[in-house]
Write a structure and sequence with these properties.
The complex is a heterodimer.
Chain A (H helix, E strand, L loop, with lengths): L1 H21 L20 E2 L7 E2 L9 E6 L4 H16 L4 E6 L3 H11 L5 E5 L3 H5 L7 E5 L5 E6 L4 H16 L1
Parallel strand pairs in A: 3-4, 4-5
Antiparallel strand pairs in A: 1-2, 3-6, 6-7
Chain B lengths: L1 H21 L6 H12 L17 H15 L4 H12 L14 H28 L7 H19 L1
Helix pairs in contact in B: 2-3
Classes of the chains: A alpha/beta, B mainly alpha.
Amino acid sequence: MNRFLLPLGIFIVLVVFLAIGLNRDPREVPSPLVGKPAPAFELPQLHKTEATFSPKDMQGKVWLLNVWASWCVSCRQEHPLLVELAKSGLVPIYGLNYKDQRADALKWLQQFGDPYALSIVDAEGRVGIDYGVYGVPETYVIDKAGVIRFKQIGPVTQGALDKTILPLVKELQK
Amino acid sequence: MRRLLFALSCLAAFNLGHAREAAPVAQDEAVEKRMVVISEELRCLVCQNESLAASRADLAQDLRREIREQIGQGKSDQQILDFMVGRYGDFVRYRPPLKGTTLFLWFGPFLLLVAGVAALVIYLRRRGRRVVEAGLSAEEQQKVDALLKQGAEDNKS
């Protein structure tokens, strides 16, 4: 009896490790930018091309920065949620139009609705690199002091909104 | 005929010019070589089993461009690696730095090895204690003596 106990124990430990390991999403790489100031930039706006936008403009406000593109399929998945969130007025959403064509982007917003207070154009993806973007869509929660507090990699889901993003936003807005 | 030849050579010249224009940004071979060395150390986050040097993903191309530009600005390899780690985390490095959070990653395998060797040693010692040396009976001892004697004689002859 005793001689089976040790292999069984090792087997169980192995199963536990594998169960934890296999249930984690390897695509979700924790961002080193969480807890750090949002990288500065100044980019032209999508609608008013002559005007620019910079994270400095948002000092004192809690806001979301959502990286999107018209070529991004999973952006369509999260888009209705963003439109609804924008309607609720809980938190302003700013869009970073990542490596896109202006005409395509405008058409996309017309077709699916525009939840963004405004969108900015990162045609070459340079600001994307500064923000550590590697899979569109990505969403950043940025606090009043301009510090990134949370990064959602991949589409925003109702679960992520209810459990993480909105409670965090409310906490930060206090 | 002469006209046709002229037209063809014009076309060829145009094509040559065209091909040169479409060449990748590899004007500077030294920069390109350094870029490849650095990007082989880095993981492409879009296709995680490929290095930044091997990947054809859009982001990988952008990041290679970034590395090229930073080399152009005279940054050191370490500075460029730090730039990438600052944005994408230690995960982008195939050889993550040795620090608190990566201690287990670096030394875990050796821990397992030591544990395995220790287990083996303990097991062998225990088994060694259980195995009792079997003595020879009188009859077997006689047989052995006879065989040894015979062997000695065989050797002499």
